[in-house]
Design a protein that fits this description.
- It is a single chain.
- By secondary structure, this protein is an alpha/beta fold.
- It has one domain (4-272): Spore Coat Polysaccharide Biosynthesis Protein SpsA, Chain A.
- Helices cover 32% and strands 27% of the residues.
- The strands form 3 sheets. It has a 9-stranded mixed beta sheet, with helices on both faces. A two-stranded antiparallel ribbon has the order 2-3.
- Helix 5 (108-114) crosses helix 9.
- The longest helix is centred in the last third of the chain and has 16 residues, at 257-272.
- The termini are far apart.
Length: 274
């Protein structure tokens, strides 16, 4: 039903300088796998087969990662390390990766709009790779696809956030319609704790209907002088309907050093420690 997933990956990753001076933040590894590959695997689990990636200057490593490396594969062929490339080779051979560049960093809303040429007129997923998620039972995006089958409208993933941290997120005001499911009435980008309409913060997982592109084209720059996806979703909520879903699982903010270390420790302990 939803076949394409958009990955905005053009940001500078300034919170990880100097490492991200030459390495895309999306390519920073959690144990032995880059952040963006975790996101791609989550999209595939949700039934998506085309990855639309928004890149920028200095991001060629992402394209190279999702490609065949003949020299490397030749060097390790027949050795005990050959199996280490099996997963990425399977992704390259069985799924489609398309790319376009965001020439100016004008916000997440602008990045999504740049992806229109790769998406076309169909609903699509959006994954922000530095929000690393592990769902309970099934991935977060797969949970949202199941919800889309019922509501056929845009969906944002939310989680409960307390205290001063609320000012780091877009926050929803919503009417509860089922357990963990809310009809969005308003959204506020990075409010103070006193201004926040709830403690339900939007994280980097979305399913969007294609009318979002026309709304984004008409959206003026908002907070920080950027085109905010939050502002476009507010309009969409008024014109049609937007659902907020309190997902089941864990989320790590790998755009921060603390979250990155927490994710590394978690995945090492769960999948690698003998």
């Amino acid at each position: 039903m939803i076949k394409k997933c958009l990955f905005p990956a053009a940001g500078y990753g300034t919170r990880f300088l100097p490492a991200t001076k030459a390495i895309p933040k999306e390519m920073l590894p959690i144990v032995n796998k880059p952040l963006i590959q975790y996101g791609v695997e989550e999209a595939i689990e949700a039934g998506m087969d085309t990855m639309a990636i928004i890149t920028g200057r200095g991001k060629r490593a992402i394209e190279d990662h999702f490609d065949i490396s003949y020299e490397l594969e030749h060097q390790i062929k027949g050795t005990s390390k050959e199996h280490l490339l099996r997963d990425i080779r399977s992704l390259v051979e069985n799924y489609t990766f398309t790319y376009t560049r965001q020439k100016q960093m004008l916000g997440l809303g602008h990045a999504v709009l740049v992806g229109e040429t790769l998406i076309g007129n169909e609903p699509f997923g959006v994954v922000l790779a530095d929000d690393l998620c592990e769902g309970e039972g099934k991935g977060v995006l797969a949970q949202m696809v199941e919800l889309y089958k019922k509501f056929r409208t845009s969906i944002v993933a939310v989680m409960e956030v307390e205290g001063e941290d609320i000012s780091k997120y877009g926050v929803i005001k919503g009417k509860k319609i089922e357990e963990g499911i809310y009809m969005v009435e308003d959204m506020v980008e990075k409010p103070s704790p006193q201004e926040a309409p709830s403690n339900l913060a939007v994280i980097g997982r979305y399913i969007l209907t294609p009318d979002i592109f026309d709304i984004l084209r008409a959206t003026k720059p908002g907070k920080g002088g950027e085109i905010q996806l939050t502002d476009a979703l507010k309009v969409q909520a008024k014109q049609n309907m937007v659902i907020a879903y309190r997902f089941k699982g864990k989320r790590f903010d790998c755009g921060s050093v603390q979250g990155f270390v927490e994710a590394t420790n978690y995945f090492y302990e769960k999948y690698f420690k003998q």
